[in-house]
């Protein structure tokens, strides 16, 4: 049995990279006052079909949609924003307390050709500021994304590209200009773009077809169609980015891949991932919450592929290296178990082999990558001491309870809650003496 095409197991180094991205993003999101939400991985198909737009590739080609036993059409979520907006409405959170600042992380599903950095089950982190109409919200959510990229240490060669899609009057005027331009070149458009020409010509700007790209290069830009209000909004966003210290460059061709965007659209891109150069992208959207049955709720957000971010990491996070607690014989297992649990409760990873003589237990300690081993024999229990062996250089020493944690720290083990640990270890020896 093999994993389904386009999926993979997250094990060992792959999992550590994956989790490192999520942990760092979760930490930064907390600094920005985000609360984390988790929505179901499948929703009613209408949640995505209506909100993402029927002309988007996601809806027309890539959704995993199925009918359940009750006859309802359900879809595995292809992205996170629609579900978050549905949750806002379903849980009655539109009536007060806006804006809501939401962070999420989890698997998404799209039926597309697997390639480097792209899977059919993939994972995203995302952030949404729901119910904020101000350009400062756009800049802050972008700044949060940039801080995550910096904290991961992958900002070298990553560039923020930003554009404006304008307000409704701007887009209406721009749509007319695009239709006029592309109609004059309709015969040269790909089949997909010909279909989009009538329904949503802005989607053509996002085409991956090489022939379409040549036509797009000469197409009108939105700048000449912006209303004064839309132009002012975008200028404020850029001004706030300057104040946040986020570098950017203007890209008038960014429209993003989903239909619900308006005003700000942006992508963090890199040339270090081949064709899959976008590592984070998003923008402002105005009507999505209304599509879910809620009131008009201007919002802004982004999503990022965990797999792509993880691939950019220069080094893999180190695996946990525990302390190996090793009883010399079965008679010392009680003392070894007591020490193991005290280390764990004090925040220090610890492991005890289930069976074997001293040699086999030491072999197990080396296989787990343990930094140090604490060996407990008959004489150690009698004298209230431990043998601490540094498994990195082979040195060892006998120490009493008060010196155990410093000895472990010298072997490279991170000490945690030292005072409480010391008290607990010393108390355990007193109990052993009373029992004896």
UniProtKB/TrEMBL annotation:
Positions contributing to L-histidine binding: 79-81, 110, 124, 128, 256, 260-261
Gene name linked to the record: hisS
Listed GO CC annotations: cytoplasm
Enzyme Commission number(s) from the entry: 6.1.1.21
Molecular function in Gene Ontology: ATP binding; histidine-tRNA ligase activity
Protein name: Histidine--tRNA ligase
Lineage: Bacteria, Pseudomonadati, Pseudomonadota, Alphaproteobacteria, Acetobacterales
Keywords: Aminoacyl-tRNA synthetase, ATP-binding, Cytoplasm, Ligase, Nucleotide-binding, Protein biosynthesis
Catalytic activity: tRNA(His) + L-histidine + ATP = L-histidyl-tRNA(His) + AMP + diphosphate + H(+)
Biological process according to GO: histidyl-tRNA aminoacylation
Keyword Methyltransferase assigned: no
Pfam families, alphabetized: HGTP_anticodon (PF03129), tRNA-synt_His (PF13393)
Keyword ATP-binding: yes
Domain of life according to the entry: Bacteria
Residue intervals of the Aminoacyl-transfer RNA synthetases class-II family profile domain: 1-322
Family: Belongs to the class-II aminoacyl-tRNA synthetase family.
Chief location bin: cytoplasm
Quaternary structure and interacting proteins, as annotated: Homodimer.
Places the protein is found: Cytoplasm
Classification via InterPro entries: aa-tRNA-synth_II, aa-tRNA-synth_II/BPL/LPL, Anticodon-bd, Anticodon-bd_dom_sf, His-tRNA-ligase, HisRS-like_core, HisRS/HisZ, HisRS_anticodon
CDD domains cross-referenced by the UniProt entry: HisRS-like_core, HisRS_anticodon
Organism annotation: Teichococcus wenyumeiae
